[in-house]
Amino acid sequence: MKKECIAMLLAGGQGSRLYVLTGEMAKPAVPFGGKYRIIDFPLSNCTNSGIDTVGVLTQYRPLELNSYIGSGQPWDLDGSTGGVHILPPYMGSKGGTWYKGTANAIYQNIGFIDLYDPDYVVILSGDHIYKMDYSKMVERHKEANAACTISVMEVPWAEASRFGIMSVDEQDMITEFAEKPKEPKSNLASMGIYVFSWQTLRKYLTEDEADPASENDFGKNVIPAMLRDGERMAAYRFAGYWKDVGTLESLWDANMDMLSPESGLDLLDESWPIYARSVNAPPAYLGAESQVTHSAINRGSELEGTVENSVLAPNVKVGKGARVSYSVLMPGTVVKPGAVVEYAILGENCSIGEGCQVGGTPESTAPSPWGLTVLAPECVLEDGKKVRPGVMLGRNGEEVSK
């Protein structure tokens, strides 16, 4: 069936910089903001932008992600003429391999894209927290008569060397691209979101696959090749909230941003809802002695202690006399009576014993100078155990080095 535009969502990343949080699941499946998972954001953006056909390319530990997406019903992506499709690597008559890079992942799914014969393909990443109307980016692509349009945003000059950097002319057409340059010529950073004219991209993917020296990556190979050939490349400037939550610190930051009206991450905006798969749980219960301030609480939570400046996922329990502050507690976490959790991320179904001390108050509110305290999913701490600030524990409670 002919579609003007479809989306391809790259969701196979291992997320190694999230360490123990992604030991058993792909990064896009990591819980975020209490009720969400990271992949909810690009999927919701697609729905809100009018894109009803999405291919989700999975690879690393896909079970939880596949189960979560299901038929796509929570995002209204279960239509008979499009919908969401899980696309893992596969073996064909000519063999097959794991996805070798971002461009190779799309190349291996040329057959899927051709089924819809789209004019345009939007390439997305599954590990960013943001709201974007992709239809406006597609309009920019059309108006510029571009072969490729890349979403960019201005970053501080001091951080520019961490990104792929675009140089543009007075019409915001891209003249140069540099991957993580030591001396950047611009502070326009690529967000890893692309719109391609499909037939042009198809040609470049085929040529890239035939090059044995290629790393099969959009930023390293395909985009530089298009620039060398003089293809029209447009920049689309984005000025809203966007965060790559690929590190523990950035994941914690984004959760805290959700509690701050000034951050730009407004999840109460009814005009651009972020959809998620609902949890079947009773309403949150706040006991007579509980104290909750400046926090996000979700279904199934039972709170008898103190919670401040924190994000709690569904089915979290905080016992009497316990205190949770500046922390992110993922689904099913239990903090038993008298325990203290500060500046920490606790993975799903952690159990913090009575009187435990997890983390501690840093000298400043920014976690990066000293590191967060992070516990893997299913980690169980015996009563009275102390976990000093900046330590990371694995599933069995053993200390894990970064």
Describe what you observe in this structure.
By secondary structure, the protein is α/β, with parallel strands linked by helices. The strands form six sheets. Strands 1, 4, 5, 6, 8, 9, 10, 11 and 12 form a nine-stranded mixed beta sheet that branches. Strands 14-16-19-22-25-28 form a six-stranded parallel beta sheet, with no helix packed on it. The N and C termini lie far apart (48 Å). About 1% of the residues have low confidence.
The count of strands amounts to 31
Give the count of helical stretches: 8
Q: Tell me the Rg in angstroms.
A: 22 Å
Proportion of residues in extended strands = 25-35%
The low-pLDDT segments are 364-369
Sheet with the most strands, sense and barrel status: 9 strands, mixed
Look at the helices and sheets and give the structural class: alpha/beta
Distance between the termini: 48 Å
> How much helix, percentage-wise, in residues?
10-25%
Instruction: Give the overall silhouette.
Output: elongated
Task: Report mean pLDDT, rounded to a whole number.
Answer: 92
Keywords:
single chain, 402 residues, alpha/beta
SSE blueprint and pairings:
Elements: E1 5-10, E2 31-32, E3 36-37, H1 40-48, E4 53-57, H2 63-69, E5 83-86, H3 102-107, H4 110-116, E6 120-125, E7 128-130, H5 134-143, E8 148-154, E9 164-168, E10 174-179, E11 188-197, H6 198-209, H7 218-228, E12 233-237, E13 242-244, H8 248-257, E14 285-286, E15 291-293, E16 302-303, E17 306-308, E18 311-312, E19 317-318, E20 323-325, E21 328-329, E22 334-335, E23 340-342, E24 344-346, E25 351-352, E26 357-359, E27 373-375, E28 380-381, E29 386-387, E30 392-393, E31 399-400
Parallel strand pairs: 1-4, 1-6, 4-5, 8-12, 14-16, 15-17, 16-19, 17-20, 18-21, 19-22, 20-23, 21-24, 22-25, 23-26, 24-27, 25-28, 26-29, 27-30
Antiparallel strand pairs: 2-3, 6-11, 7-13, 8-11, 9-10, 9-11, 30-31
